[in-house]
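Message: A physicist's question: would you kindly supply an amino acid chain plus fold tokens?
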Amino acid sequence: MTEQTKTYSIALRLRRTTYEDAYVAVPVTSAIVKQKEDGTYGIDYEAFVAEAIRLGSDSRVEWQVEATEVNAHPIQGPKPEDRQSFDGYYP
């Protein structure tokens, strides 16, 4: 590389977040139903969500990518020796 073609780059650590969604059907059982003060029964929302999240870990759930975001990582530091860096100057 000659002095004329020498370039400089600034490294930035990025973070890519992929959002996925899935539908799960939560059975209405005593695990998610609670008795109210007036004697009626209703869905315990926190228990319902916890059960849905538990079901979401089943390998049969069909997750689909909803969106992907790329942002600057909030923690910056030197690149570890075992990691690669993409240089946009050399496509």
Q: What stands out?
A: Residues 45-56 form the longest helix (12 residues). Residues 15-72 form one domain.
